[in-house]
């Protein structure tokens, strides 16, 4: 009986090293939101974290922070058809009567929209400028009682007056209405029902049709040259997406507008939801995120995009103060009462204040906190929905977590319903920090080259869990994984293992090659729990872009679904040319700059497609470099006269190494070609320029 089976907690390796192994009780916790969860989408309920109210900038004043989860109030929290779910707000059709609750124009200013009359420069004969502002607000308000105010053009030349309304978001609009006083709303004291607009034209913009400099391109909607109806009611059929409306008078006859109303139908095209900030109470590894969504209407017309970010303090904003009356005054983010701490939102809202030296401080700008908070991540791919989810890539360990959901729809009847969302987290984390470094960091591109990747944990807080697995992302499938080593804080080898090939997945003394894919490989080793211990991975791979990052995740096999990312930095000296000032996880390949197609090979060459199963096919191998997105690739076989014999591939491919294309020596009709020389030509349409290479191949029988 060996030592590890006689004594629980002890694991001996062939090197003589003894690792401590203790039974684990999982401490993984989950925040569950929506249907079946402890929290609703506005942070009410119970969870293993504290929910801090979300804040976002007011549309018209970036220094004014609003509390809430739905900027512009464009998402639905309490749909009777989807209780407990989150989805795009839906507009219901308004009947022929007055529908103040359905008037889209009413909330335009709160959403960041506007209403203006750019042709009115001097309004002093009837209104002061402040009166004009109040009047414009009034004519899009659904609240009654304001009939004494109307936008008037009387005793003036009314021809050419413009009224431009920005709704603050895109809506599916199916109806417009405007009218003077004492029409829809009775106002006997202002009997101006005959002062209606006699001729007008209406143009609209959908918020997307813009010039290069962002100027709206207006599209005609309706023209009326002889209007006889005091209440102008225009049906838009079929409904169309609209963000801005331009009304122009083409009559010189006096008129007024008491109200302008806009109605719509269907789901909104876009909306953003911002979650509360979740406080784990201490540094945590934020693990797997998953959500359940349902499709309404045609699936191809709607999308949900989820992004995450993490932070080290409770606010993602920085509040500043500045001296009142001083031109160009410095904006200071520190508290007036305690200059060793950052200013809080409450103190910012309490400005202006006078300090002990008699200086008066006023509010400065509110900035995004780019030091204590990561930016929102790239959106999770669609495959994360309705499944086991994916690991969060935002930095960990961090105490605070927030996510954002972007809803999009290209059709009035299409939308996605977010039924529920959950996030796993682990406290305490695997390590205080994990530092990663790769070497060499400047190489020739496209060729398989040897690299060493080192990870060093910072483990100074009590109770840290450690890790026993590393997942390393690579630009293409590695050519080989040669060796795995564990070194102590002084750089002395503790234990190691050589692998015989990518198929060698056996476990020896706790070392194992767990898996290899086209995008990453995963290795396991005896658990690391000591500060500044090193794990080194020696492998061979190709670099396919000018700048390639090699991010790594550390995992603990007893806590599936949790991964802690590495921080790029200096681990140790990894080679004679390893400059610590340039240490990190990015590899540069100047030779790749501008190159698209490389390392083209035909194997074997010549080949004998005679059906004896020996060298019956050639393998066409090549590397695609410096591609931002999948690009068109064509691989064809030609005879020496230039006639195309066979098309091997015609499609789109991302950057990577390709070795699976094969030609069996047959033409387009399935007949064996005659013996002789042929040319295999590969053509790639790159992001900025194309590339093409040709190789001769001999067919022999």
Short description:
The protein is mainly beta and 701 residues long. It is built from 3 helices and 47 strands.
What does this 3D model show about the protein?
With 701 residues, this protein is mainly beta. The chain has 5 domains: 31-92 and 267-316 and 369-426; 115-264, Galactose-binding domain-like (Jelly Rolls, Sandwich); 320-364, no CATH class; 433-588, Immunoglobulin-like; 597-699, Immunoglobulin-like (Sandwich), CATH 2.60.40.4070. It is 3% helix and 45% strand. It has 3 helices and 47 strands. Strands 3, 4, 7, 8, 19, 20, 21, 25, 26 and 27 form a 10-stranded antiparallel beta sheet that branches. Strand 43 (631-639) and strand 44 form a beta hairpin. It is globular. 35% of the residues are buried. The model is unreliable at 1-23 (pLDDT under 50).
Topology at a glance:
Elements: H1 3-6, E1 10-12, E2 18-20, E3 29-34, E4 50-52, E5 55-58, E6 61-67, E7 75-76, E8 86-88, E9 90-91, E10 114-116, H2 129-139, E11 151-153, E12 162-179, E13 200-205, E14 219-224, E15 232-249, E16 255-257, E17 259-264, E18 266-267, E19 270-274, E20 277-296, E21 302-311, E22 317-323, H3 345-349, E23 353-354, E24 360-368, E25 390-391, E26 398-409, E27 415-426, E28 433-439, E29 449-458, E30 467-473, E31 480-487, E32 493-498, E33 512-516, E34 520-528, E35 534-541, E36 547-549, E37 552-555, E38 563-565, E39 567-568, E40 586-588, E41 597-603, E42 618-624, E43 631-639, E44 644-653, E45 656-663, E46 676-685, E47 690-699
Parallel strand pairs: 28-39
Antiparallel strand pairs: 1-2, 3-27, 4-20, 5-6, 7-8, 8-27, 9-18, 10-12, 11-16, 12-15, 12-17, 13-14, 13-15, 19-26, 20-25, 20-26, 20-27, 21-26, 22-24, 23-24, 28-29, 29-35, 30-34, 30-37, 31-32, 31-35, 33-34, 36-40, 37-38, 41-42, 42-45, 43-44, 43-46, 46-47
């Amino acid at each position: 009986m060996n030592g590890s089976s006689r004594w629980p907690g002890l694991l001996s390796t062939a090197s003589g090293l003894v690792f401590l192994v203790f039974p684990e009780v999982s401490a993984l916790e989950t925040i569950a939101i929506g249907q079946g969860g402890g929290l609703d989408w506005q942070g009410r309920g119970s969870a293993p974290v504290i929910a801090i109210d979300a804040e976002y900038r007011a549309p018209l004043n970036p220094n004014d922070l609003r509390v809430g989860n739905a900027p512009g109030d464009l998402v639905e929290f309490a749909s009777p058809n989807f209780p407990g779910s989150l989805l795009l707000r839906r507009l219901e059709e308004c009947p022929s009567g007055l529908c103040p609750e359905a008037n889209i124009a009413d909330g335009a200013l709160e959403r960041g929209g506007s209403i203006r009359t750019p042709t009115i420069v001097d309004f002093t004969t009837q209104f002061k400028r402040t009166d004009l502002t109040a009047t414009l607000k009034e004519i899009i308000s659904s609240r009654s009682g304001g009939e004494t105010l109307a936008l008037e053009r009387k005793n003036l030349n009314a021809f050419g007056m413009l009224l431009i309304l920005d709704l603050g978001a895109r809506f599916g609009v199916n109806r417009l209405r405007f009218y003077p006083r004492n029409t829809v709303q009775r106002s006997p004291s202002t009997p101006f029902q005959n002062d209606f607009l006699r001729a007008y034209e209406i143009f609209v913009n959908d918020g997307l049709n813009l010039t290069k400099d962002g100027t709206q391109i207006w599209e005609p909607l309706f023209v009326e040259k002889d209007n006889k109806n005091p209440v102008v009611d225009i049906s838009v059929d079929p409904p169309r997406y609209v963000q801005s409306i331009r009304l122009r008078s083409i009559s010189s006859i006096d008129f007024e507008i008491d109200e302008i109303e806009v109605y719509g139908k269907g789901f909104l095209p876009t909306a953003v939801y911002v979650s509360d900030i979740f406080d784990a109470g201490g540094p945590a590894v934020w693990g797997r995120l998953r959500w359940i969504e349902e499709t309404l209407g045609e699936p191809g017309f709607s999308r949900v995009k989820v992004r995450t970010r993490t932070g080290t303090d409770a606010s993602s904003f920085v509040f500043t103060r500045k001296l009142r009356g001083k031109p160009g005054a410095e904006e200071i983010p520190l508290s007036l009462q305690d200059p060793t701490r950052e200013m809080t939102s409450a103190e910012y809202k309490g400005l202006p204040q006078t300090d002990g030296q008699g200086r008066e401080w006023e509010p400065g700008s509110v900035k995004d906190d780019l030091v204590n908070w990561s930016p929102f991540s790239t959106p999770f791919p669609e495959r994360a929905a309705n499944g086991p989810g994916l690991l969060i890539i935002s930095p960990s360990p961090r105490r605070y977590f927030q996510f954002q959901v972007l809803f999009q729809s290209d059709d009035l009847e299409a939308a996605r319903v977010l039924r529920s969302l959950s996030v796993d987290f682990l406290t305490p984390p695997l390590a205080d920090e994990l530092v990663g470094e790769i070497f060499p960091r400047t190489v020739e591109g496209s060729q398989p080259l040897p690299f060493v990747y080192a990870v060093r944990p910072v483990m100074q807080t009590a109770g840290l869990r450690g890790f026993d697995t590393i997942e390393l992302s690579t630009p293409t499938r590695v050519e080989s994984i040669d060796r795995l080593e564990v070194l102590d804080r002084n750089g002395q080898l503790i234990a190691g293992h050589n692998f015989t090939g990518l198929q060698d997945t056996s476990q020896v003394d706790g070392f194992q090659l767990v898996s290899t894919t086209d995008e990453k490989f995963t290795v396991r080793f005896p658990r690391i729990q000591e500060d500044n211990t090193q794990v080194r991975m020696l492998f061979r791979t190709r670099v396919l872009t000018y700048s390639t990052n090699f991010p790594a995740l550390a995992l603990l096999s007893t806590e599936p679904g949790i991964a802690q990312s590495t921080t790029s930095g200096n681990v140790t000296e990894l080679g004679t040319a390893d400059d610590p000032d340039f240490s990190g996880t990015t590899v540069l390949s100047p030779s790749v700059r501008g190159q698209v197609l490389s390392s083209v090979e035909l194997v074997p060459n010549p080949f004998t497609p005679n059906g004896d199963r020996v060298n019956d096919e050639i393998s066409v191998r090549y590397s695609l470099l410096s591609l931002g997105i999948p690009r068109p690739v064509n691989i064809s076989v030609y005879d020496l006269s230039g006639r195309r014999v066979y098309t091997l591939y015609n499609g789109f491919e991302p950057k990577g190494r390709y070795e699976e294309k094969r030609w069996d020596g047959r033409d387009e009709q399935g007949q064996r070609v005659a013996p002789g020389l042929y040319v295999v030509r590969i053509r790639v349409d790159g992001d900025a320029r194309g590339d093409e290479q040709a190789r001769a191949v001999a067919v022999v029988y």
